[in-house]
Fold this protein.
Amino acid sequence: MAYTTIDDPSAYFQNVLWTGDGSAGNAVTFDGNSDMQPDFVWSKRRDVGYGHVLKDTSRGGTSNNDVHLVSNTTAGDSTYTAYRMDFNSDGFTLDGSGDSGFQANGTSMVSWSWKANGGTTSTNTDGSTNTTVQANTDAGFSIVTFTTDGGNETYGHGLGVKPDVVLVKSRSGAGTWIFTTDVIDGSVDYLILNATNAAADLSYGAFTSSTFQYNDNNAVTQVAYCFAEKQGYSKFGKYVGNGNVNGPFVYTGFQPAWILLKRTDSTSGGNWHIIDNKRSASGGANVNVYTLFPNLDAAESTGEAASTYGVDFLSNGFKIRASHSTRNASGGSYIYMAFAENPFTTSTGIPTTAR
């Protein structure tokens, strides 16, 4: 069997840095090897404190999409014309203007984007309650919308394989971002993306190849982002810290483009961290300390020593170069999500160049 079926990860996931110009028509074009029309775009202003803006084509469509959620708050769906976006064949266009923060003239921005199914959805009847799904089974990603009825219902995700992570957020009312995963101990645990809590057992349900289980108040509309690991493209797992700047090496089977990290065993927990291959003092070169925090509206952290937040992006994984408790406490438990820049070995068995 081939090592990977995804020789070019940029067909399904891309990072891009861009500059706001404060006016409608600001076009952002991806620079990956493949053209990619995104379906889920997560954007953050880097230079000052400003909220994380999350958009998808299931909630707002591919044109004039002004529907958004914010990962560092509990607010439901909001519409704001200054955040309006068109999803294009190889990027997106900012159609909003006049906002003093997001997309203001000269702002330093980053966006992380995933491809689903071009905004085309279908009804899924696999669960006890029907869902609306757009899925990309090749890349192991689906966007699911549904309405809860107050019970422990099952919901179809459309991936065809068991997901490793399901991130759920209420849309019609305020509610926490529930990050559910079974990579910690095999049972489904949850964390809160907009907070620092440690992991806790979900106490019900499991992920299957067709459904996930969820419970919320009656008649609340929801969105779920579902991810299943794909060899050579994505990896979801855990590691144990050693408290040393010569920290653990985590094998992913690819050179990462994007990593999300979170400590899971501490009651104080610590912030969520996002590191990527575009943001660093040397354009992605090691050691990378540039960090954004999904649970905070804080500006990008850039000035820390490598011993605080340092991570090396390697050809087959990543290595922690920090001893900070949120990255590498001795005996601390951590989870990660990672997406590839390049697979370590292509579908034809050719290794990539070492970094």
In short: Residues 247 and 320 are 5 Å apart (CA to CA). The longest helix spans residues 57-60.
